[in-house]
């Protein structure tokens, strides 16, 4: 083989090595990129799982709180129902006023003059006290003017 053939063989091997190296480098680059994507996906999945776990924990707390509130409400309703449905012993009803006030009211009613009591029984004969004899009010003067104009 001549030196020219050896030179040709070296050039061919160099070109082949160049293409093989570039393909292998591209595969390594893609492999590295795929590994990075896989790591990101795993990280995002782990983050999502943590968020879901936190959400479920807070939901559990809220549901427990709601259940406690519901049980308190149920107990309150049952207690109120028992209080309302139990028969209470018949006691004389509590007076609105105290004993001393009631005695004072009775004493003041007894000391009222009898004429007022008689006037209320004789309602048909007398006018009620809210009526006025004669003319009164805002329009009392207008009636007299109208009468005067009719007379003239």
Quickly list its features.
mainly alpha, 152 residues, 4 helices, 0% strand
What does this structure look like?
The protein has 152 residues and is mostly helical. The chain is 76% helix and 0% strand. The protein is elongated and about 160 Å long. The termini are far apart. The relative contact order is 0.02. The mean pLDDT is 79.
In short:
The chain is mainly alpha-helical and 152 residues long. It is built from four helices and no strands.
Helix content: over 70%
Taken in chain order, the helices and strands follow as HHHH
- Please state the average pLDDT score: 79
Structural class: mainly alpha
What kind of sheet is the major sheet? none
* Oligomerization: single chain
The rounded Rg comes to 55 Å
Q: How many strand elements?
A: 0
Distance between the termini: 162 Å
Shape category: elongated
Low-pLDDT sequence parts: none
């Amino acid at each position: 083989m001549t030196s020219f053939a050896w030179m040709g063989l070296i050039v061919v091997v160099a070109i082949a090595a160049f293409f093989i190296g570039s393909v292998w480098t591209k595969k390594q680059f893609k492999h590295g990129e795929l590994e990075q994507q896989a790591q990101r996906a795993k990280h995002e999945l782990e983050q999502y799982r943590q968020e879901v776990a936190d959400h479920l924990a807070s939901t559990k707390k809220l549901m427990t709180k709601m259940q406690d509130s519901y049980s308190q409400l149920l107990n309150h309703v049952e207690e109120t129902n028992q209080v309302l449905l139990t028969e209470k012993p018949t006691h004389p009803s509590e007076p609105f006023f105290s004993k001393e006030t009631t005695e004072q009211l009775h004493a003041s009613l007894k000391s009222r003059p009898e004429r007022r009591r008689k006037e209320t029984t004789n309602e048909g004969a007398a006018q009620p006290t809210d009526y006025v004899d004669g003319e009164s009010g805002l329009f009392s003067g207008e009636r007299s003017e109208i009468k005067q104009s009719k007379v003239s």
